[in-house]
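Fig. S4 source data, part A: sequence.
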Amino acid sequence: MNRGGSSASASANYLLCTNCRKVLRKDKRIRVSQPLTRGPSAFIPEKEVVQANTVDARTNFLVEEYSTSGRLDNITQVMSLHTQYLESFLRSQFYMLRMDGPLPLPDRHYIAIMAAARHQCSYLINMHVDEFLKTGGIAEWLNGLEYVPRRLRNLNEINKLLAHRPWLITKEHIQKLVKTGENNWSLPELVHAVVLLAHYHALASFVFGSGINPEREPGVSNGFRLISVNSFCVCDLANDNSIENASLAGSNFGIVDSLGELEALMERMKRLQEDRGDDETTREEMSTRFEKEKKESLFVVPGESFHSFPHSDFEDDTIITADVSRYIEDPGFGYEDFARRGEEHLPTFRAQDYTWENHGFSLVNRLYSDIGHLLDEKFRMVYNLTYNTMATHEDVDTTTLRRALFNYVHCMFGIRYDDYDYGEVNQLLERSLKVYIKTVTCYPERTTKRMYDSYWRQFTHSEKVHVNLLLMEARMQAELLYALRAITRHLT
């Protein structure tokens, strides 16, 4: 299926890898048979994840208590590198999928499918196709959106806006959903749906950002190949997304260079912490620094510095597989920088005007009992999670780095914190990391192993998974802030 109105002749220049389903140019065709990597992640050595799971018996307990699939799936295995966070994640996901709530169980899984489809995340689609059927879902709905009730189809607009441009959501979108006669949504139902949509958009970012592999069951499940669009595959060799080991990477990224990179980052963090009390930056200057960072994010282009598809070609000619396309409308609609070149008045969501703590939390908790507490715990957990280490260094205060990662995601979604100096973002986040963050957050299906490998080369995989957890939760909170603000405006 073509995206963005591409012609048949354009898509004829491409084919899909039969193993991983990536889009390939025909002139770079390469035959594939078996994936090169095993284990839960294509980016992380299997032994690192397995060792963590073996040592931590608590992970198995958490899976028994809260897993919706009843088994240790690949997402859970990778997240178990951070067991404290995993508990918060599983509890909140279990609550929104299994516990008492406004929506019927099958509808919850179908909404998860619709959300995952916006990012072509076959891993999550396959998972929830199975769960949808197990909870009594009507099999015919899996043929596509035209087979589901009009009420569910009406979620398409808010699904695509939340996934790609949440700042466009207005109270009119909410009014349209709650005032559509026999197909209307109650506010509690809509809040439940919005939480599910935001959760699965963000989880798709984690799946792609962490290189989550397909589950190992062989063959086909309910007509769907068990595939993950971004798992590393031999076909990547045709697009210069090769597996980088020390000998391959040595010519580009020397061990001395990456050690120097680490020391320089730690020095900048230390200096920022020391200077904080002395800084007399004015509010005007803080605002200017935010606008500067916001505009600079325009020029952080996913895929830059990587010899894969040219950006414009990839964007215009991506082929969305039939398995995914049946669950989405307007497949050409994607992330677009809210601060586009040439605009004088750039829209900004001032966090102080509508915060999660003071506004979003109470609204979501009132309309969907207790979910606010679970989400709040999860946001706080990932934001405050630290082992006071950086690579091989111990007793390190990583607060400024965690804040920069979280706030940079919100910056790309137009959310500004008046009391935060966005100059810190530029000092702490190198360009390759910014490219990775923007890709994982805004275009997760384009994430490659090369992008993952390119930043923080001295850091552990566990630390990079922590980055992905921060990006996932920052993205989910940003989507919820826009949606809940629109619902608040509808109520007032």
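Fig. S4 source data, part B ends here. The two ends are 42 Å apart (CA to CA).
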